[in-house]
Structure formats: C-alpha cells, structure tokens
Amino acid sequence: MTFAARMARLGTESAFEVLARARALERAGRQIVHLEIGEPDFDTPANIRDAAKKALDNGYTHYGPSAGLPETRKAVAEYISKTRGVTVLPEETLIVPGGKPIIFFTILALIDAGDEVIYPNPGFPIYESVINFAGGVPVPIPLREESGFGFDLTLFERRVSPRTRLIIINSPQNPTGGVLDLGQLERIAALAAARGIPVLADEIYRQFLYEGEFASILSLPGMRERTILLDGFSKSYAMTGWRLGYGVMPVPLAEQVTRLMVNSASCTASFVQLAGLAALQGDQTPVARMVAEFKRRRDLLVDGLNRLPGVRCARPRGAFYVFPSITGTGRPSAEVAERLLAEAGVAALSGTAFGAHGEGYLRFSYASSLERIREGLDRLGRFLATRP
Ligand code: PLP
Predict the structure, then answer these.
(1) Among 174, 242, 349, residue to substitute to test ligand 1 (most atoms within 8 Å of Cβ)
(2) Which CATH superfamily is domain 5-44+285-386 in?
(3) Which helix (H) or strand (E) holds 118?
(4) Could you tell me the residue ranges of all domains in the chain?
(5) What pLDDT digit, counting tens, does each position of 334-362 carry?
(6) What is the pLDDT of residues 160-203, one digit of tens each?
(7) 310 alpha carbon to ligand 1 midpoint, in Å?
(8) Is the CB of 36 under 6 A from ligand 1?
(9) Handedness of CA 284, 84, 248, 79 (dihedral sign)
(10) pTM, whole model, 2 decimals?
(11) CA of residue 231 to ligand 1 center, whole Å
C-alpha cells in the first residue's frame, strides 16, 4: 500500500506513545510512576455521569445536528459569555468530539499550502503537526523560561508577515504551565487586529490557574470577529474519555467547520452533549476541589524537583504540568526521559516532544496522587544520584 504524501507530514503526540510503553513495562511486571499523560486522575463528577445515563434512557442515542445540539450550543454560548465577559451567540458555538478537532478543523479551513502559522514552541505538538499536514509553514515562537514561558513578543512582532494566516496561542500552557498575562495578550491582539489575522486561542486549561486572573484574548478590542476560542470538558470536568469539546468562532468560519464535521464525525454523541450541558450548569465545587488538589501537587513536585542535583524548576501558574530544566545533568532530554522510564520506572516526556525549543527540559504531568508524585521524586533522586 502506498500512502498519500501528506501522511509523511503528520506528526504525533508522544504522550500516548510513552503511555503505551509504560503500560507494556507494567504488563511485564514493572511498577511505573505515571507522570506523562495529561489527564486528570479524578472521576467525572456524579451529576455529569447521571445526566448521561438519563440522556441514554431518554433516547439521546441518535444522530444530532453536526454543529451540536441547540441546547448544548446555547449553554456553551451562555457559559462563554459569562466567563469571558463578551456576548457570544449559539450560532458562533460548535460542539465537537474533544478540543483537538477544533485545532484540526480550524487549520484545515484556514490554511492553504505556503500560508504561515505562528504557534508556541515548546507547545502542544498537534499545532505543528496539523500545520504541516495542511501544507502550511510553521513559524514557531520560542517560549523562554526566563520570561515565565510567555511569548517572546519582540520576536513575535518580527515574525508576523504578509503571509501569516493564523496565530495560535495557548494559555495556561501545555507543556510549560506558563500563562499569558493581559499585557501580552493586548500586544498580540493589537497586531492581529491591525493585520486582520485570526487567532486560535486554546483555553482548555482555563480553570487550572493557581495565581492571578485569567485573561482571554476574545474579550480584547477587535478580537471578537477574529478569535477562534477552543475549550472543552476533558480537563476541567475530568472527561477525557467522553470526547467533548467546543469552539467559538465567527459564523462564516463556523459554517466551514460544520461542513468538516459533516464530512468526518457527522456529529458529537448526543447523550455526551447532555452530560456536558449538566457539567456547565451544575455544581462547580468538584472542579474547585480538583484544582485545589492540583495546586498542592504542583507545589510538592516543584519543591521536590528543585532539591535535585542538576534540576531547576520554575513554579508554573497554570495547567497541570511542570517543565524543569535538566541541562545541569549534561544529558539530552530525550535520553534522560528514555532512561528514566527504562531504569527508574518514571514515565515523563522529553521537552523535545513539544518542539525543538523544548531541548534541555522534561515535562512532568502532576495529574497523579501526592503519594505517587513523592514516589516519582524519590526514584528520580536515586536515578540522578547513581547514573553513570
Ligand atoms: N489543547 C491542549 C493545549 C491540550 O493539552 C490538549 C490535550 O492534551 C487539547 C487541546 C485536547 O484536548 P481534548 O482531549 O479535549 O481533545
């Protein structure tokens, strides 16, 4: 079988590969500390599970509209209006199976061969992968530890060109945990608005903010008509396996993305959408409890990492990842990640899984209990103390 040339341009997400390798080691009898995958280890709250069961019993088992059920679109529009401080209409809202399809569909709908797309590096690997897949030209903006992993704005302003067709931002950020503050967003918005460039704002970690106020580019002047906002249920409501996310975007783009849905998934599972509706409208204390626990884990992990030789770890303000520098070990990131798993039984990701600018770093997800994090730190300490 010969494959289409475009397949050679499609990347991957290493977290899933490392998880598979870790699981294989477990099947062979090893005990692994999982600090690789970005999914909350909490159960989906009971009110959400109950809403899904009720929806199944009430016959929500059929095809629904490709853009999403009207009641769920309305609930998302109200939720975004409330949390982002701008009025969003249901027709600007699309319900899709997870946050990822918004990335895939937006890039397919906007990017032709040779079009430039600005995106963060290190960043969620799917951005670069899909830009390449669509034939676009990835234009990375390095995120640097010295500046709290914010956008290098001087470089950003230099890299925006007449061929820039899309700017991707992500805050709070995967893999660094960095957060774009209002001042940074204002500078990005000013340039995007002046040049008429759409911005894909990936806000999937919005709820995981431990200090400061969340700011959305959607609410800045001139951005209402050019922002594609990505958010979803996977992280905030511990619903990774349900596959439910959404985008908010100008109606003409929403129509194009709906056609991509018709041509691919047809629609998002109807009973799952009713579970999402219950999540948005129901009790939010499980989210607050989960976020408080994540903050305790972050502090344990950051403090523990900073006690290890050759490791330096900034205290990230958001998401549930830390991105420590390991240049002090004198080893490349990929080798350290590989050996950590094989020799110490700690699954983590090489910073380079998130782009070339991730060299010198590892990513640990703290979506794991305090006890497992402590065990991971002990193993890491022994590994660093005894490695040749
Ligand atoms: N955006 C970012 C930055 C992510 O880290 C992830 C998941 O890891 C997603 C989007 C996709 O989320 P989902 O599982 O809802 O597709």
Answers:
(1) 174
(2) Aspartate Aminotransferase, domain 1 (3.90.1150.10)
(3) strand 116-121
(4) 5-44+285-386, 48-281
(5) 999 999 999 999 999 999 999 999 999 99
(6) 999 999 999 999 999 999 999 999 999 999 999 999 999 999 99
(7) 30
(8) no
(9) positive
(10) 0.97
(11) 9
